[in-house]
Amino acid sequence: MSSSSVSAPLPPSASPSGSSEPSASSASTSRSPWRSLRHRSMRWWSVANFVSNAGTWMQLTVQNLLVLQITGSAAATGLSMSVQAAPALLISVFGGAAVDRWPRRLTAAVSQALLGAVAFVTALMVALDRLDVTSLMVLAAVTGVVATVDGPACSLLGNDLVPREDVPSAIGVGALVHQAGRLAGAALAGVTVGFLGTAAAYAANGLSFLFVASVIPFLRPARGAVRQAGAAKDRGAKDTMSVREGLAFFARRPRLLALAGVTGVSAVFGRNYQLTLAVLVTGPLAGGAGSFGTVSTVLAVGGIVGAVLGARLRRPSVRVVGALAAAGGLLQVVAGLSPSLAVLLVMVLPMAVVESVSDTAGTAVLQTDPPAHLRGRVLGVWGSIGTVWGLGGPPALGLLMELAGARGALIVGGLIIAGTIGAGHLLRERRATVPRVSPVAALETAA
Asked: Is the pLDDT of residue 418 over 50?
């Protein structure tokens, strides 16, 4: 990392509410992927998110084992995951409306505190040996409900801390923080459970949520950031903050519909590489668990590289997202044709990089395209759509693998992604080039 791209680290005594900010001219010209970290509150927010992500992944690492230990059923493990995901499918739009209606920082702080409380309750019940299947499902459902508010609140709060042109950097840094927290959490899980037990992992996650909640009140937006308080001027006096308004805006916004289409086809026919590549490596390529571990490592490295490259974007667009997704589909086709593990590894890295950059660009469009007072509801709609893809994609891809094999699924899926996006682009260009003739001019021409 270049020393000129990031300001000096915060001293231990620094306050997240400090007012030291870069000049407007330097902020507007920088293309550094780390430019969002020049804002002090964003640095604090990134630290808080790292702590929270580490705690969450530490808990997730042991959660499935806990369910298996309690129930002895793999089906119950899958059911607990579905119960936690179900609220996102059903009420994400209402969670997004709540984020638009309530003060952002207060909403995020309260939701983080509630998630911490759920983690502490789970830890206590595990420690007292009182956690049964019913209480486990109830706690999973409560977590899912709170997450429908916490997800968009925390996503938008991070973007509210930096100027608009630094939002892609903030999203890219968030992706890096997520990956780093995932690695740290998985490593800490084994140590924590080994020395302190399963309950300690939940308690540590509860503390991580409380840490985030304690940092939020001190965060201050940088100069040029879009402030939620100023959104009232955009929405007018008659705005009711209704869910219907968010749905209507999404449905009438071609950019968001195009983004949903690109992301949907990519999510269903690609991206599930932990499934397709696992079958390809252990089947046609005759590799073992160690070989797939190597592939997974390359995927993770590519994701980190892609997050850094995505953070350099200043004005992402749906066109960029579509081009990257189509390129990823073509790379997927070549990966499906790989004659050996070595060739596959060469292809996996750019696949992961392209996917990560595309995700960063798409998230930036999603979180900056709507007016400020509608962003929570738009994210709520997106949460419901994304849950459909998340639940429906793996079974559809699994069926395709049953019919065409791992290689066929990668090849056919990649061609569908690239072909669908290419056809959509050509259709859009054709519509754009068709001249529009007014009724009056048409009558004059006919006369």
From this structure: yes
